[in-house]
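Long-time lurker. I teach an intro course on protein structure, and each term I like to show students one example going from raw sequence to a predicted 3D structure in token notation. This year I'd like something fresh instead of my usual example. Would anyone be willing to generate the tokens for the chain below so I can use it in lecture? Attribution to the forum is fine with me.
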Amino acid sequence: MKAILVLAFLVFAVATVWAEAKAIRATVVYDDLATSVSAVDDSGQLWITLADLSLATRFEVKPQGVCRDEICIPLPKARKSEFLRGEAGAEFFNLTAFAGLTHQAVAHDAATDTWYFGLRSDQQQLASSLMAPDFTLPDINGQRHSLSDFRGKKILLVTWASW
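-- Reply from a regular --
Happy to contribute to a lecture. Here you go:
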């Protein structure tokens, strides 16, 4: 009986906290595409419907995990409640928790309810070494110089682009 009362209290507490979360219209920028979605901001966590998850990110929740094309990222079974929540006949997905799982940077502008999600760990290209690739460029007099010509010496490299 005591266990049932504790369980009932926990269910009530979770429902109360979720009820106090703020329903918003948010802009999600994912893969550099902006999508307007209906969402819930629950203590800095962005919860969106499964339909909006697919619309904004092209990911879908499947039994094997969160999948898009050939990529499928399994959700830890012990932490499933951090990612999925059902409420009033709709199922919500915590996009910020997913970003943490996939090592994505997240930026949130509360004034405009805009959420930016950076590259996932599978999209990032990391440098294989600290060695700069060799290249050759002309100097102001037209004489060509390669970076490898200066190997072992300290170099100050100044670059500029118009964009």
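Some talking points for your students: DSSP finds four helices and twelve strands in the chain. Helices lie at 2-20, 50-57, 80-83, 95-101.
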